[in-house]
Amino acid sequence: xxxxxxxxxxxxxxxxxxxxxxxxxxxxxxxxxxxxxxxxxxxxxxxxxxxxxxxxxxxxxxxxxxxxxxxxxxxxxxxxxxxxxxxxxxxxxxxxxxxxxxxxxxxxxxxxxxxxxxxxxxxxxxxxxxxxxxxxxxxxxxxxxxxxxxxxxxxxxxxxxxxxxxxxxxxxxxxxxxxxxxxxxxxxxxxxxxxxxxxxxxxxxxxxxxxxxxxxxxxxxxxxxxxxxxxxxxxxxxxxxxxxxxxxxxxxxxxxxxxxxxxxxxxxxxxxxxxxxxxxxxxxxxxxxxxxxxxxxxxxxxxxxxxxxxxxxxxxxxxxxxxxxxxxxxxxxxxxxxxxxxxxxxxxxxxxxxxxxxxxxxxxxxxxxxxxxxxxxxxxxxxxxxxxxxxxxxxxxxxxxxxxxxxxxxxxxxxxxxxxxxxxxxxxxxxxxxxxxxxxxxxxxxxxxxxxxxxxxxxxxxxxxxxxxxxxxxxxxxxxxxxxxxxxxxxxxxxxxxxxxxxxxxxxxxxxxxxxxxxxxxxxxxxxxxxxxxxxxxxxxxxxxxxxxxxxxxxxxxxxxxxxxxxxxxxxxxxxxxxxxxxxxxxxxxxxxxxxxxxxxxxxxx
Length: 606
Fold this sequence. Notes:
Structural class: alpha+beta
Shape: globular
Oligomer: single chain
């Protein structure tokens, strides 16, 4: 059967997973009356809850005798390690752009990777039926983006379509019939080249592993595209590392091909197809699986280095072990090593003492997803404030700088620019009207300056602003950047919080806890209204007397406490604070629980 391998790339929430739903439905993949969930490829619980794609996934459809393998890629740059590997498996890309928003930072990130590989994109302007859609402007911006990314003439001469993924139509003209997606199917078949590997079918078998999975019955499963040759079930093959070292020989116990949403066992894999293999025990991502005669590995795409690091440690608070079952450092280390094996964008290293582990990755969202998955698996952890990784270039210290794109109401643009270009050491690149009384701001800001900024940004814009960020470049160190300005309220007692005590503390600042919650000495229970830390007693009850007065026994009414999400808590803490993460709770605490040690550390810090 004729083959086409494509990837669908887009910014977060531009509708690529919804479009894949429509492609699957109209290709006849589902039987009549089959119950199919919305966003079928978002199989991970976190993906469904957050509405984003985290893991790249492949599916397959048939269209008039041609099998089209479709890879749904993550849209967020924090998961760019997935994108960089996946694009090496395909021969074309469909770039999906929201007709109202136009190309966004994550679009730029993924598109630059695709253009660098020489892939010729198909541009689909999605959501053209929205009232604020401006497809002509969005198309012009896509062309400008390609030109800025040094696209060649073939890539600049891209075909484009107008679509509504939710309504299930795609046409070459904006005023087309708007019936189905046949225009997109036909363009994929005619524009995307067939896999070059099919011409090399007679050579020895070779496949570059791009994703790693596991199955309770089959064990490790590696997925990739067959670069040359054929492979039958039961054949003996070898795994080579990217530098050519022989890792292992193994017998292929199963070959799985993508057929719709499921994977089906097949007897033989052919050149150009995307398949999964089982039977290996050591081989992993970026390794070459090949015949025993193969001596040179296939070239693997270089992975961009991590930009931030977070320290994962054991939970040593007085409440440790109440919620989770996995609390030992050995178990935490094993889980992190397993994650690093399948996610090449993450690096794990031990800290002195061996009780904590430094995890380096792309961004706060990537770290937050890893921690959230671990807490759902029953782990208890203590997490440090993210630290930016630096590098020496020509003897000069450099730090990562991100390109920030902000859409905000005109009335709030001044406050946003002041925060970014002032204490956070950002540089304003562009400022223009985005229509509908909104301003688009583009700035280059050090990654350090963006840690903890998102919550402040939402406050400044009354929750109406949209902020997107993507890695831009390494630039010389920008100097000191001030951290959080407010101090915190620290508990000096162990026990259960009392409503009367919290009511009297509300004048001191915002509370993070409510009444009848477990607290301990050194736990952060609120934000101080001033810039210094304050130790308070949240257990202090009302003095009982035999004198009654009018109004003295009225019920205490507390202000609703501030409840932080995991990412907000990690971004909020200071260098001497930790986030305690358990399956049922997210707490903030001082790194040193002993009050004398806290005071000594405070004096040492000046």
